[in-house]
Write a structure and sequence with these properties.
A: 2 strands, elongated, B: globular
């Protein structure tokens, strides 16, 4: 299987990269067609192909790992790779946090007549005021019809969001307990703590879904509610998607633990997923503070 | 070590057929694919530039309608930046970094292949928009809302193409960092790394920090158009200028992503042909890092005229001009390297000196535009077109050419045709100045960019510019001919060291090098380290 060159490990030629490129291409074409009002079938096909690619690629990697092909150097490469991948994710969220801060510090105050940009306020929306959470939009202050939805109420920080904060922080604890159990080779505790982490992730997602339904049906807080709704749903939505991905990864690691994979010394897949989970946790703290609380 | 190399030659079990390329896990094959793809896209983007120059040969509308003209300027930029320049840099990194640091391959060879194979698919996605209702993107490569939101069915394909290219770049950058941090041969300390490797590590960090931000920006465009969000809509509390801030937070580091590898290449070439070690190695490393760091704090100099608060204008003006300091350090170091050197002027050296002269011209016009009040006059005129084409064509592309001529004998095992190489350089250099220098004049005189028609007073210079453009485009065919000749093995056999005074690990391998570069790690000492 492997091509061993002295101290180095170089994998054999693999079809997964090119399969992955084609799968993503199909997904993007499908999404483009769907947004243009054509069938979503191509999109579903593409997503199925992406899942197939991940399954195949990771199966190969797990086989190679279990076959003992990965030496210390490969392990270090994976560590660098995972850390910088997480950093790139941080920068992705930074763009959306940047949009939130810009709206709160610049664009909404400017539209309300503060600073140098008073002309827009003066001539277009003289009645618009700077309040945050922004439940109205500038175009609602005139008699013309608005493109946006008027928010009745926003989600308070100290309800479901606070509970979700506790849940995610607790899940950061449970995955650490699982790690300690793995290091002590206590497999039973390992699986239990991992299962607990998956369950906490699932509860988080369930509560988040409840909150979204509540927002849409009772509060009229929607993606189309102006800049408040935009930043609220894009930030929490992308975060929720990351929780879903993280929980899926933890579930797979749990199944691998059940099959007896990993040793007390050698378990980078576990650690990589744990890092990712902590990253998702930290992003949530940012969301809780800046989106819900202050 | 030569024993190890000879030994490996026996075991060169290269995969064969199309599978060798599709399923590759080999840094050289992937590097070759990147470079060939880059060359093809260079001509695709070049063809679009020729359409632009043909239309601008005379005032009035001749060949294309204004919408298509705007698509040409937009897609020319996207193809050149993401399809020609970035893949050229990554291709050279793929080929050279493992050989320069004494590694057998990149740290993650499969991911490396995916980084490449995304490119043809991503550009299919982008170029398909030409055949869609509403046509290809025509609002400028910077994709400013609200104009870009008026694009027809091609809109989501533009956005997804950008996402797709971002995935490729981030994976490539992660791979380069893991390779350099983890695969260096024993004794190859950081301060012994060849400067090309150093510039690429720093470029990789820029990529990882900036590409996701672009992904976020275009995602907001997508949701603004299709899902009713208000990020860039003042009626909903957002601001179209917000896009420009996020875009240029990516866009300015992107400029250095393009240019730093070129700086790295000429830092390898100039010492070789001056027969002297690089002057001020450590200061070169620190200057590169400073340029990269500062590049995150200057983005708003692209948008001085949007009406920022005065404090912002001043901050970004001073921050921009401070970048001239580390850049000046580099320019003076290259000159000091040549000082009293025993210089010869083979093609790679000619192109490197071309970079030194003409990148400086672009650098100085950049400083002029970094001055806020002055920029108010230059903004969106041909002056800016002249500026960034001087930086990109004789700054970045010449660096890539220097690298290609420098390493082509190493890659193929035969020397390129020196006469053709020199012809390529001189024809390119004369035509590139005929092409871009008069743009300064018509820009200062007030000709706006991205317009298919113009005032008749600009006719004379535009005709000269167009002639320069066609000449430059045709001159590039010489490069294709040189590369084909080398690839077919036509030419004098190259030695392992190729150049009399070339230093570094890549020159200790055979020409062409074995399929897997270093099977046993070489021991690096000060004597065998960078030149």
């Amino acid at each position: 299987m492997s091509d061993s060159h002295g101290a180095y490990y170089i994998p054999e030629p693999s079809r997964w990269p090119v399969v992955g490129s084609m799968a993503l291409f199909t997904t993007f074409v499908g999404a483009g067609l769907f947004l243009n009002g054509v069938t979503p079938v191509v999109l579903y096909l593409g997503l199925a192909a992406v899942i197939y690619m991940f399954y195949g690629w990771f199966s190969d990697v797990i086989k190679e790992s279990m076959g003992g092909n990965y030496n210390h150097q490969v392990d270090i490469s994976f560590r660098w790779g995972m850390s910088w991948f997480i950093f790139s994710e941080v920068m992705f969220f930074a763009a959306f946090f940047g949009a939130l801060f810009y709206a709160r510090v610049y664009s909404v105050p400017w539209l309300a007549g503060e600073g140098a940009k008073f002309a827009t306020h003066e001539f277009l929306w003289p009645d618009f005021q700077n309040v945050w959470p922004l439940i109205t939009t500038p175009d609602m202050t005139t008699a013309l019809t608005s493109h946006f939805t008027l928010i009745k109420e926003v989600i308070p920080a100290w309800g479901i969001p606070a509970i979700n904060t506790a849940i995610l922080l607790a899940s950061g604890g449970t995955i650490t307990f699982a790690h300690w159990a793995l290091k002590k080779n206590n497999r039973k505790a390992l699986v239990l703590w991992m299962a607990a982490t998956v369950i906490l992730g699932a509860i988080f997602l369930f509560l988040q879904a409840e909150e979204y339904i509540h927002a849409y049906h009772e509060l009229d807080l929607k993606l189309t509610s102006g800049i408040y709704g935009s930043t609220f749903f894009m930030l929490t939505g992308f975060h929720g998607f990351h929780v879903f991905m993280g929980a899926t990864m933890i579930l797979i690691i749990t199944l691998r633990c059940l099959k007896g994979h990993f040793t007390a010394e050698d378990h980078f897949a576990f650690e990589g997923v744990a890092w990712y989970w902590h990253f998702v946790d930290v992003v949530w703290l940012g969301l809780f503070i800046f989106v819900y609380w202050i | 070590m030569s024993e190890a190399v000879a030994h490996d030659d026996h075991h060169d079990h290269k995969p064969t057929g199309i599978g060798r390329w599709l399923f590759s896990t080999n840094h050289k094959d992937i590097g070759t694919m990147y470079l060939v793809f880059s060359l093809i896209m260079f001509f695709v983007g070049g063809a679009m530039a020729m359409v632009i120059r043909a239309e601008l040969f005379q005032p009035g509308l001749q060949f294309v309608d204004p919408q298509f003209f705007n698509s040409m300027t937009t897609v020319h930029a996207l193809v050149m930046i993401f399809g020609a320049l970035m893949p050229a840099g990554v291709g050279l990194a793929n080929w050279m970094i493992p050989m320069m640091i004494g590694a057998p391959d990149m740290a993650m060879p499969r991911m490396n292949n995916m980084s490449f194979w995304i490119l043809p698919f991503a550009f299919t996605l982008l170029l398909l928009t030409f055949f869609m209702p509403g046509g290809a993107p025509a609002g400028g490569w910077t994709m400013y809302p609200p104009l870009v939101l008026q694009l027809g069915d091609g809109f989501p394909f533009l956005i997804f193409a950008v996402h797709f290219l971002g995935v490729s770049s981030i994976m490539g950058a992660i791979n380069i960092i893991a390779t350099v941090f983890n695969m260096r041969a024993p004794g190859m300390t950081f301060m012994r790394l060849p400067l090309f490797v150093w510039t690429w590590i720093i470029t990789a960090f820029l990529l990882i920090a900036s590409m996701p931000v672009l992904a976020g920006a275009v995602t907001m465009l997508l949701t603004d158009k299709y899902f009713g969000t208000a990020f860039f809509n003042a009626a909903g509390g957002g601001d179209p200028v917000l896009f420009q801030h996020i875009f240029w937070f990516f866009g300015h580091p992107e400029v250095y992503i393009l240019v730093l590898p070129s700086f790295g290449i000429i830092s390898q070439v100039i010492p070789t042909f001056s027969r002297k070690p690089l002057f001020g190695y450590a200061s070169m490393v620190y200057a590169t890092a400073s340029i990269a760091f500062l590049s995150f704090f200057v983005w708003a100099h692209h948008m001085f005229t949007v009406g920022m608060p005065l404090t912002g204008e001043l901050f970004f003006m001073y921050a921009t001009m401070s970048i001239a300091v580390p850049t000046g350090v580099k320019i003076f170091n290259w000159m000091a390297t040549m000082w009293k050197g025993s210089m010869t002027f083979e093609t790679p050296m000619l192109f490197s000196i071309g970079v030194l002269f003409m990148f400086s011209i672009g650098g100085f016009s950049g400083l002029m535009m970094g001055i806020t009040p002055v920029d108010f006059q230059y903004h969106d005129t041909y002056f800016i077109v002249a500026h960034f084409h001087y930086v990109i064509v004789p700054g970045i592309i010449y660096g890539v050419f220097a690298g290609v001529y420098y390493w082509l004998p190493k890659w193929t095992g035969v020397m390129y045709d020196e006469k053709l190489g020199k012809l390529h350089f001189w024809l390119s250099t004369i035509s590139v100045n005929v092409l871009f220098f008069p743009m300064h004049f018509i820009g200062l005189a007030g000709m706006p960019r991205r317009i298919p028609d113009y005032n008749t007073i600009f006719t004379g210079w535009n005709q000269i510019i167009s002639i320069g453009g066609f000449a430059f485009g045709l001159s590039q065919l010489i490069l294709v001919w040189v590369v084909i000749k080398c690839a077919r093995g036509q030419g004098e056999k190259a030695t392992d060291q190729v150049w009399e005074s070339a230093h570094g690990l890549e020159w200790t391998l055979s020409s062409p090098p074995p399929f897997h570069s270093f099977t046993t790690p070489p021991q690096v000492t000060d004597a065998t380290a960078h030149s």
